[in-house]
Amino acid sequence: MTTSTTPANPTIFSGIKPTGEKTLGNYAGGFSQYVRYQEEGQAFFAVVDLHSVTVAYDPRTLAAQTLDLAALLFATGLDPARATVFVQSHVKGHAEGARLLASVTAYGDLKRMHQFKEKGEEQDFVSLALFDYPTLMAADILLYGTDLVPIGDDQRQHLELARDIATRFNSRFGATFTVPEGRYPEVGARVMDLQDPTRKMGTTSAEGGTIRLLDPPDVISKKIKAAVTDSGREVRYAPDKPGIANLLEILAVVTGTSIPELEASYADVGYGPFKVAVADAVVTLLEPVQARYHELRGDEAELRRLLATGAEKAAAASTGRLTTAYERMGFLAP
Ligand code: TRP
After folding, report:
1. pTM for the whole thing?
2. pLDDT (tens digit, 9 = 90+) per residue, 78-91?
3. Which residues line ligand 1 (CB under 6 A)?
């Protein structure tokens, strides 16, 4: 995972939006990676609530969704003793940092962002917050001196922009920010929709196409058994078998076994028994996660305490660089 250019004890940062129910796709490309990264350096994971309010959302449920996601992050294995898990809006430096970095963000670059164009088209009201989403994301990352950003493939353009923003700030005002590197998931980066394996499994998928991390076990099994498959009967990872390939990806992610090994074990069992094996593996993975989630979510005082500690640690790690940025930009100190 670490490359020769990565420092020995890297700073790692990622952010996850609290809105939208989390799916097996989020687990594969996100949660399962975070757990590995917390072993590799100083890891920060922010529930990025300020990013959630860039598009239409429900203010009555935002706070609860923020707690839900925090509980899920701990339930999937983030350890508060190792990783700093916090809520973005609790650390005021993120909003301030975004304001400062706006001075070195090119309007033309923001206009070119694919996500802005796509999401902008989906919204009745296109906010300035949606337009400057990448600047806030750059602040998230840069304030911590982040070396590595574990992130989905769809966020490449935003990460590149964060690198440009850091570089521009450094050349204009003096070396202040580390230029971060993205780390993109390999296997299972793209868990596909069970009903339409040519598109990504996402919160917008139809009910039968997506496995939510909190779906009850019987619902999970039913959905996997009803997944579309392909013609033939051999379990093989091939472009003309997108349904079976997706189920192999899922099995690989949840069991940590390589796809060739899985092909060797399941080639001739037939689609039906193969699906049963996939369903059982997913349920085996998620049952204990769900149990921990419900326990954590049921003790809101404890959850808030964990998040308060996380916010303190995050503030301590980021204020220095924020102060330096104000100084380098020439502001009068208060
Ligand atoms: N934009 C990211 C996403 O949609 C979420 C995010 C916000 C993030 N700030 C970040 C990811 C900082 C990594 C680092 O997935």
Report:
1. 0.94
2. 999 999 999 999 99
3. 13-15, 17, 48, 51, 137, 140-141, 149, 151-152, 155, 158
